[in-house]
Design brief:
about 325 residues; mainly beta; Immunoglobulin-like; 3 domains; 4-stranded antiparallel beta sheet; 4 helices; 24 strands; binds 2-acetamido-2-deoxy-beta-D-glucopyranose
Length: about 325
């Protein structure tokens, strides 16, 4: 090979690299939402306005009469394709094409997924208050960005049927935008397929991030915390939370109680000191616990059988009637 040929090859390969389609992959997240997988290198993606020539012909639209806007602002670009310039994390946006008379032809939200941005399991947390098929997931956004949820997917590994029809999962976005409340139309008593939740969010710069978690509903059940009430001087009681599954005889709970002399907050080290005691139901749906010298009481509940987690702790401060103890100790009554 002569040295001339080598030089020619180099010259041709440079523009090829720059103009080549740099996104490793492009895929459709939703109709009109396109995701480009990018690795930070310079490149270009040719975004079509109308997918087919046939459509242009049938609507008598000429290539040179198509004009483009990006994020609502006019661009000088004309023609059926917009060359989306990709560099580092720039290039995403809301691309709109119109015909010259102002008719909207198409609108595509282009999101960029950076290669290093991996699916982050740690940020998505899901819990259920009971076994009825409802659950809640939440996540924490990294700071200093404005986030928008693009799509939430919640599904079983395989579809299933029940007497009321095809089972599916419906989710609503919480008003804060950092959580979803979901409901499975026919919860399975014996779950054989994992439930998968994927949340796609993007920043104000159109960078896509994904949160993902797979679980069985029974694994994420965590009862609500209880409300401890005084019965009399020596007894307190608490009942199953109102959100717990009924009948209570079929969905029993056990309690763990830890007592302390000085307990500002339940949990370590407070509840460790007394190594929580398990308390059985006094009556269906109800627990009682005798308090004698107890000052502080920490209580939590859980399903005794499957993996479910403990509820959060509830703390109760025992308030004795003033004067009573002094009576015993000092033997003097003060009015
Ligand atoms: C609009 O753009 C999207 C995304 O590029 C494309 O899939 C779709 O087919 C286009 N719509 C029409 C009517 O061509
Ligand atoms: C994209 O821009 C169009 C026109 O400005 C607007 O109607 C549409 O709501 C925008 N879409 C998104 C997802 O921002
Ligand atoms: C407190 O209530 C419990 C349960 O109702 C009862 O057994 C106990 O006798 C009561 N104690 C006092 C001092 O009234
Ligand atoms: C399931 O339990 C949750 C939590 O208490 C409740 O908000 C929801 O309405 C219940 N759903 C059904 C279908 O019973």
């Amino acid at each position: 090979m002569s040295s001339n040929e080598v030089v020619l090859l180099v010259i041709f390969s440079v523009p090829l690299l720059v103009n080549g389609i740099s996104p490793k992959r492009h895929w459709t997240l939703l109709p009109n939402v396109l995701v480009l997988d990018v690795d930070g290198q310079q490149g270009q993606y040719s975004l079509p306005c109308l997918e087919s020539k046939a459509e242009m012909t049938s609507r008598s639209i000429l290539d040179q009469n198509i004009i483009w806007k990006k994020n609502g602002a006019d661009t000088p670009t004309r023609g059926n394709t917009f060359p989306v310039q990709l560099e580092e994390s720039f290039g995403g946006g809301n691309y709109t094409c119109n015909s010259e008379d102002g008719t909207l032809l198409n609108n595509t939200l282009v999101l960029l997924r950076q290669e290093k941005a991996k699916t982050d399991q740690g940020d998505l947390k899901c819990t259920a208050q009971n076994y009825n098929g409802s659950f809640h997931c939440s996540w924490k956004y990294p700071k200093r960005r404005v986030w928008t949820v693009a799509l939430v997917k919640a599904q079983r590994g395989q579809s299933w049927t029940c007497f009321s029809g095809e089972g599916n999962i419906h989710c609503d976005l919480d008003s804060g935008g950092d959580g979803i409340t979901c409901r499975e139309t026919c919860p399975q008593p014996e779950e054989s397929r994992l439930l998968h939740v994927t949340v796609y969010v993007h920043t104000e710069y159109y960078l896509l991030e994904t949160y993902y978690l797979a679980f069985y509903l029974t694994e994420i059940v965590k009862p609500d915390k209880v409300n401890i009430q005084k019965v009399n001087e020596t007894m307190v009681e608490w009942r199953y939370p109102g959100s717990w599954s009924i009948p209570h005889s079929y969905y029993p709970l056990i309690s763990q109680v830890a007592v302390g002399k000085d307990c500002r907050e339940c949990g370590n080290p407070c509840t460790d000191l007394t190594s929580g005691k398990i308390v059985e139901n006094r009556a269906p749906g109800m627990f009682q616990f005798e308090i004698r010298k107890t000052k502080y009481l920490c209580v939590r509940i859980r399903d005794p059988f499957s993996p479910p987690q403990w509820s959060d702790w509830s703390r109760h401060r025992v308030k004795r009637q003033p004067g009573k103890n002094k009576n015993k100790v000092g033997g003097r009554i003060r009015f």
